[in-house]
DNA sequence: CCCTTCTATGAATCGTGCT
DNA sequence: CAGCACGATTCATAGAAGG
């Protein structure tokens, strides 16, 4: 199966793809979680996620200004499209932060998937330490499957907590994940299978999939990141 | 303030305590999460959580056979009682597993607390591997506060992920937590404050509180564990 | 006392087969 | 057919046993 990076909105592109043609869904959708108030959430991500008065390092990305209710509906919409594209028993991994974790497990299950657990990404460094509080040093991968997941799948035992620091040189998107982290995660896919990432961003999931011997298809609607991801994938 | 270990049901005991007299709520309630079917959930914990036909190492504990709906209602009931007992701004820490995490964040917020984050207990590797799956090696601490939480509280910066293996000699309850883990957690309480644990079990939270210089009050309804906890605390 | 070898265990889960 | 009981499975680590 040919690898492809498609430019456009996942909700438009997914319906054009062939049913039952993917072995795993692994993606990092917009969290829509920055900001305590609805108003603060509607600022573009480059203002929302930047500390202090620093200028934005990364281009804005789309799809991050919904309120909780709309965000859930939107998650269920694209997840349901993905359910059609996945083979029976295929695993699903969705990144989320603590604030959106319950919404993410709801969305996964509303879309008809079986929720099977949570894997923790431990960033190891304290992000914004605050006296008298716990550090906010983890993000979460909500994972599950389309229907039952036979034990004879060709996939290894995978870690439930992945300790991986964020390295600037390896972060090409505002919410980009370390390549080493993604290389661990994609291994939930059956050996040599085909990985779907409808929110490819700077393409780290696709790069990891390629490095681990999978084929892949990604969608990304922001021109800038389609170019970034394209270059990274071409350089492999 | 005198330290006390009370014997009885939390829902009965909590209303008898004085309002605004605690600086932190730190507890590990029954999760009611084992078992795929209603029937399986009603088995005692020693059968539910132990593999194979091995004989039970620890005595059973009560309150683990509710379904999701009743479990939520019950959580909100005792949490609301605790809200009355806590001072304004006091932190709350609730243990939970991946399956009950969304329910726990709901319960915390339904009872009127502000949800502030999740802290991860990483049990480290060695926990029941399964091919083709992520290891289930973490439990979670949902934490928050009664109302706003001033930054000038006398409490240190605390870790967001705590790596701590389970040691047999340090585990006196089927679901007992390591003392080292609890010593880290209780430090969310303001220096020298008073800690409440309505589900004391073998008393690890109270032991940790004592070791870290806090005063404490615990409730436990199972005779056996009241005795175990009493002995541990007396031995300090 | 230190090192090596061995064994037991885990807040499970899946699939089968019986009721 | 739905629901439930039961056996099989996975491996890093702790802790015991032995040299």
UniProtKB/TrEMBL annotation, chains A, B:
GO cellular component, as recorded: cytoplasm
Assigned EC number: 2.1.1.-
Molecular function GO labels: DNA binding; N-methyltransferase activity; site-specific DNA-methyltransferase (adenine-specific) activity
Keywords recorded for this protein, A-Z: Methyltransferase, Transferase
PROSITE patterns for the chain: N6_MTASE
Pfam families linked to this entry: N6_N4_Mtase
Domain DNA methylase N-4/N-6, residue spans: 23-148, 168-229
Gene Ontology BP annotations: methylation
Family classification: Belongs to the N(4)/N(6)-methyltransferase family.
PANTHER family: RNA METHYLASE-RELATED, TRNA (GUANINE(10)-N2)-METHYLTRANSFERASE HOMOLOG
Protein name per its UniProtKB record: Methyltransferase
């Amino acid at each position: 199966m040919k690898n492809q990076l498609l430019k456009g909105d996942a909700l438009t592109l997914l319906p054009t793809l062939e049913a039952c043609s993917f072995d795993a869904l692994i993606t990092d959708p917009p969290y829509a979680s920055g900001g305590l108030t609805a108003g603060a959430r509607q600022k573009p991500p480059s203002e929302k996620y930047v500390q202090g008065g620093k200028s934005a390092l990364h281009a804005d990305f789309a799809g991050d200004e919904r309120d909780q209710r709309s965000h859930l509906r939107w998650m269920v919409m694209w997840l349901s499209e993905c359910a059609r594209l996945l083979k029976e028993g295929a695993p699903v991994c969705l990144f989320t932060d603590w604030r959106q974790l319950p919404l993410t497990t709801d969305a996964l299950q509303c879309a008809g998937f079986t929720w099977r657990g949570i894997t923790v990404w431990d960033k190891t460094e304290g992000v914004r330490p605050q006296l008298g509080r716990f550090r906010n040093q983890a993000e979460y991968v909500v994972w599950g499957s389309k229907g039952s997941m036979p034990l004879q799948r060709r996939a290894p035992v995978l870690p439930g907590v992945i300790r991986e620091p964020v390295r600037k040189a390896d972060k090409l998107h505002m919410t980009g994940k370390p390549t080493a982290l993604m290389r661990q995660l994609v291994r939930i896919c059956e050996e040599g299978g085909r990985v779907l990432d409808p929110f490819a961003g700077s393409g780290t999931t696709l790069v990891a999939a390629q490095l681990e011997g999978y084929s892949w298809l990604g969608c990304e609607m922001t021109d800038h990141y389609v170019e970034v991801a394209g270059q990274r994938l071409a350089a492999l």
